[in-house]
Design brief:
The protein has helices at 2-21, 28-41; strands at 45-54, 77-85, 88-91. The chain is an alpha+beta fold. It has a three-stranded antiparallel sheet with strand order 1-2-3, with helices on one face. Helix 1 (2-21) packs antiparallel against helix 2 (28-41). The protein is elongated, with a radius of gyration of 13 Å. The two termini are 18 Å apart.
């Protein structure tokens, strides 16, 4: 049970951290990498790559290796984070 709680706590902290990074002019890829590093720093592992979907993309968008863009004024950003601790997953 404690692994589920820890995974959820890390996912919550990483989500709040990520939300603070999403600003006009910031790089999608850079923000993604910072959130993923934060999850590891907090003692978790990625359950899946951090996903930030923009505007008409409903969900599950992950930066591609050779593709990046900056957030623009008015963008609607959906942040999806999954953390696992010993197989117990926190998903937000």
């Amino acid at each position: 049970m404690k692994d589920w709680i820890k995974a959820g706590e890390i996912a919550s902290q990483a989500r709040e951290y990520g939300a603070s990074l999403i600003k006009v002019g910031k790089s999608h890829k850079e923000v993604t990498e910072k959130i993923e590093s934060k999850i590891i720093e907090l003692g978790g592992e990625l359950a899946f790559p951090v996903q930030m979907s923009i505007n008409n993309i409903a969900a599950h968008y992950t930066s591609l290796v050779n593709t990046d863009f900056n957030f623009k004024e008015g963008d609607l950003v959906k942040l999806d984070i999954g953390v696992h601790i010993n197989g117990a997953i926190g998903d937000t």
